[in-house]
Design a protein that fits this description.
With 112 residues, the chain is an alpha+beta fold. The protein has two domains: 1-39, no CATH class; 41-92. Helices cover 65% and strands 12% of the residues. It has five helices and two strands; from the N terminus they run αββαααα. It has helices at residues 2-21, 42-55, 59-76, 80-93, 103-109, and strands at 24-30, 33-39. The chain has a two-stranded antiparallel ribbon. α2 (42-55) packs across α3. InterPro entries: VapB-like (IPR011660).
């Protein structure tokens, strides 16, 4: 019973805050505990609402969908080594010239 009163109190405060500041306040339910996610960025609010409208899903689902998709992309992203490996292999496949790469060689590249 106390949990319910606390939850109702959080909702009222979130609504009041939204009206006072003009910012969006999203309240997410996790089990029996209410958690507020306060979006203070107009672009973020517009993007979440746009995604929710296009998908015809609630705001909470739109946030979860967007975050899930971004986390999946991060997990699938290749490491720097994996991205540079083809370049490394191309360079390693070239034959050696046998020329010494000393200070005079590098200075000659810059006409020094």
């Amino acid at each position: 019973m106390k949990s319910h009163a606390w939850t109702a109190s959080v909702f009222r405060r979130a609504d009041d805050l939204c009206r006072m500041t003009g910012h969006a306040v999203y309240t997410l339910q996790a089990g029996r505990t209410a958690m507020a996610l306060h979006i203070r960025d107009a672009e973020a609010d517009r993007l979440v609402r746009d995604l929710a409208d296009r998908k015809r899903i609630p705001l909470t689902e739109a946030i979860k969908l967007a975050v899930r998709n971004e986390l999946r992309r991060e997990d699938e992203k290749k490491s720097l080594w994996e991205r540079l490996k083809p370049l490394h292999e191309r360079v390693a496949a070239r034959p050696e010239t046998g020329l010494p790469a000393d200070k005079a060689f590098y200075d000659g590249l810059n006409d020094e």
